[in-house]
């Protein structure tokens, strides 16, 4: 079945794509929402866009560790969604924003063999999501206090959990508004993005 | 005919249908009286001669049913209990947060490093130039050189916000006051002449201003720290007359034809008619503190003055002959001293004013009504303003932190370009007589020349005229 091994997107290739997307999406959110000072980011060309990526060592290593673990889970097919939570300071810990990336594993058996053109299409889809993240600043409420972020990973019950990870509450937002963002699909995974934020009018 | 019959049949059918559907005939015996009445009323509403609000919108059947079923309310309460429970369960499930019960929510034990202490997120990412390209910018249709075309040294140029130390006259000469001395630099030839030096103690020159227009070219007004205003013939290098009238230094000067207006630390504006013996023809009293900006409108009808009391006042030319105490308008929107004042050469009555360190705004006014047209926060002290005589553009000179010149598109006030180079704040801006070059005097003791207003179309016209005349010569 896998006759065109070079041109089809295998599970491994798809995992790489999804993981890379997560890395840039998280960095974009941190930059666009001003969680960290803009000086701590550097410009990188990616997906045909100029993206801001954290240049701070501490933050970089933190993200790397998480993304590495995420990759293992993705390969096992354990990840159901990744959530970036923006919370107020350590004391109050109120959730203000919740960026959800739902991962769905497509049926690998029935997946049509994809070609190099698909990579282009996927890049376009990812571009659209990143653009939406950038544009979301216009409708999201201002974060006018010092904020922190956290990453939550929804996995299957059967997933192997290393000691550095713990169960967490989902950190929902009390009165929230949700805006669905675009999605992208590799032949193996489909990722749907959405952002929920605290609705101050409610 | 057949069509008519069909219509009649249809009407008969409709009447039958109505009879079947109409509940009054069927239920009238069991209906309460009030309901019957209400129904009758609603039925008769069509043929009534009185105005009756639309009761057809009210669902009396529903209301009646609710009232009649109120006796078996106990059972409905039981139902609501059940539904409450169901809701609770549903809420619990939602709280568990899982659409499919087979997932776990995991978080990394070690949390992300906190942002730098003292960092306040005000989403500056969006709104500042730092680290992002998202600042609102206007496209320029021409090339604007970002470096000065010429730099001159101006040693001992006083770094004083309140003084006006440069002027570029119609004779293409630049007058610059350096300490007690006034130098004249000929922009055409590059020749420098020392015009005058104040020799009394530590007096210094506070303001210079060329008499505008070709006819009076070569006459320079000089204001001094001693409070006197002098008129000099530069070509002959001699003082023509000395005019008093101020109790303190004269920090700004403005010409309107033969009338010279001077103002300064004593917060009064004095109008001098330089042709007559009793030169002081009138004065304007209104400001509370030192006046540092003074400018006549191009049509000569209005004088704008800006002072350290954060006020911009507009004075009518009709009152130059009297001692005026009432300005036509007093504009109090600025929150810092106003030095930069510039009248639009394009639109009548449009005045641009710029505030000091605490204000940082450029404001545009309709001078005939005193209405604020626009206001932009530039992010830096505005020391000087100059209009592009050809394009609808405004150039502003700024202080800390960039010491830049900013070119703005009028009336949108979108930033076209920043010209950087000065290492001290830009104290003054002067436009060349041909309108293509701007001189900026910086606190870093340099004068920089910028060709930012585009090449003069006058040149083109001249060359065309020259070509034409040549053609004429050829023909003849």
UniProtKB/TrEMBL annotation, chain A:
The keyword Kinase does not apply. The keyword Iron-sulfur does not apply. Pfam families: HORMA. Keywords: Cell cycle, Cell division, Mitosis, Nucleus. Residues 12-195 form the HORMA domain. GO terms for biological process: cell division; mitotic spindle assembly checkpoint signaling. Coiled coil: none annotated. It is found in: Nucleus. InterPro entries: HORMA_dom, HORMA_dom_sf, Mad2-like. One of its GO terms (cellular component) is kinetochore. Belongs to the MAD2 family. This is HORMA domain-containing protein.
UniProtKB/TrEMBL annotation, chain B:
GO terms for molecular function: anaphase-promoting complex binding; ubiquitin ligase activator activity. Residues 152-450 form the CDC20/Fizzy WD40 domain. Residues 68-77 have a biased composition (Low complexity). It comes from the Eukaryota. The keyword Electron transport does not apply. One of its GO terms (cellular component) is anaphase-promoting complex. GO terms for biological process: anaphase-promoting complex-dependent catabolic process; cell division; positive regulation of anaphase-promoting complex-dependent catabolic process. Keywords: Cell cycle, Cell division, Mitosis, Repeat, WD repeat. Coiled coil: none annotated. CDD domains: WD40. WD repeats lie at residues 284-316, 331-375, 419-451. Residues 25-89 are annotated as: Disordered. Pfam families: WD40_CDC20-Fz. InterPro entries: Cdc20/Fizzy, WD40/YVTN_repeat-like_dom_sf, WD40_CDC20-Fz, WD40_repeat_CS, WD40_repeat_dom_sf, WD40_rpt. Belongs to the WD repeat CDC20/Fizzy family. This is CDC20/Fizzy WD40 domain-containing protein.
């Amino acid at each position: 079945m896998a006759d065109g091994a070079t041109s089809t997107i295998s599970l491994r290739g798809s995992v790489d794509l999804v993981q890379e997307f997560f890395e840039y999406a998280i960095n974009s959110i941190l930059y666009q929402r001003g969680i960290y000072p803009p000086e701590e980011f550097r410009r990188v060309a990616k997906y045909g866009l100029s993206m801001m990526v954290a240049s701070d060592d501490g933050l970089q290593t933190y993200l790397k560790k998480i993304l590495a673990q995420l990759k293992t889970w993705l390969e096992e097919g354990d990840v159901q969604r990744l959530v970036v939570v923006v919370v107020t300071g350590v004391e109050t810990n109120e959730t203000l924003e919740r960026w959800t990336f739902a991962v769905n594993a497509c049926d690998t058996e029935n997946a049509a063999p994809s070609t190099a053109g698909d990579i282009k299409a996927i890049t376009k889809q990812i571009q659209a999501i990143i653009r939406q993240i950038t544009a979301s600043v216009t409708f999201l409420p201002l974060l006018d206090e010092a904020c922190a972020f956290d990453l939550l990973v929804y996995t299957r019950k059967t997933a192997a959990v290393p000691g550095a990870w713990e169960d967490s509450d989902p950190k929902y937002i009390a009165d929230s508004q949700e805006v669905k963002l675009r999605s992208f699909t590799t032949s193996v995974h489909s990722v749907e993005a959405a952002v929920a934020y605290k609705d101050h009018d409610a | 005919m057949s069509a008519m019959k069909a219509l009649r049949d249809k009407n008969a059918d409709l009447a039958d249908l109505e009879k079947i559907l109409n509940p009054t005939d069927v239920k009238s015996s069991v209906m309460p009286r009030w309901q019957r009445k209400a129904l009758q009323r609603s039925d008769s509403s069509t043929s009534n001669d009185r105005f009756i609000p639309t009761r057809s919108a009210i669902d009396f059947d529903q209301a009646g049913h609710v009232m009649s079923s109120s006796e078996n309310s106990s059972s409905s309460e039981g139902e609501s209990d059940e539904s409450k429970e169901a809701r609770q369960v549903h809420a619990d499930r939602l709280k568990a947060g899982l659409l499919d019960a087979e997932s776990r929510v995991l978080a990394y034990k070690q949390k992300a490093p906190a942002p730098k202490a003292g960092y306040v997120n005000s989403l500056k990412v969006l709104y500042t130039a730092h680290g992002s390209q998202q600042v609102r910018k206007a496209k320029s249709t021409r090339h604007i050189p970002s470096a000065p075309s010429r730099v001159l040294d101006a040693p001992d140029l006083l770094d004083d916000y309140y003084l006006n130390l440069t002027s570029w006259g119609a004779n293409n000469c630049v007058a610059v006051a350096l300490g007690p001395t006034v130098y004249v630099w000929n922009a055409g030839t590059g020749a420098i002449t020392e015009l005058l030096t104040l020799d009394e103690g530590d007096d210094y020159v506070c303001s210079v201003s060329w008499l505008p227009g070709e006819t009076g070219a070569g006459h320079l007004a000089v204001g001094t720290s001693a409070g006197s205003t002098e008129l000099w013939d530069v070509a002959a290098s001699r003082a023509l007359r000395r005019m008093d009238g101020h109790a303190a230094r004269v920090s700004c000067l403005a010409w309107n034809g033969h009338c010279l207006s001077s103002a300064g630390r004593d917060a009064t504006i004095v109008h001098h008619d330089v042709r007559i013996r009793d030169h002081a023809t009138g004065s304007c009293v209104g400001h509370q503190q030192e006046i540092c900006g003074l400018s006549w409108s191009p049509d000569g009808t209005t004088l704008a003055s800006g002072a350290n009391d954060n006020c911009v006042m507009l004075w009518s030319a009709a009152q130059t002959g009297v001692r005026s105490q009432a300005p036509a308008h007093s504009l109090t929107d600025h929150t810092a001293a106003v030095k930069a004042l510039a009248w639009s050469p394009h639109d009548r009555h449009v005045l641009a004013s710029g505030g000091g360190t605490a204000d940082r705004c450029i404001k545009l006014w309709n001078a005939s009504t005193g209405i604020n047209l626009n206001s932009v926060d530039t992010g830096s002290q505005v020391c000087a303003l100059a209009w592009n005589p050809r394009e609808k553009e405004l150039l502003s000179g700024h202080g800390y932190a960039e010491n830049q010149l900013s070119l703005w598109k009028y009336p949108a006030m979108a930033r076209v370009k920043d010209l950087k180079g000065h290492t001290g704040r830009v104290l003054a801006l002067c436009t060349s007589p041909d309108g293509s070059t701007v001189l900026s005097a910086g606190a870093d003791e340099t004068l920089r020349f910028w060709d930012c207003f585009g090449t003069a179309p006058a040149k083109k016209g001249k060359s065309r005229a020259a070509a034409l005349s040549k053609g004429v010569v050829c023909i003849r």
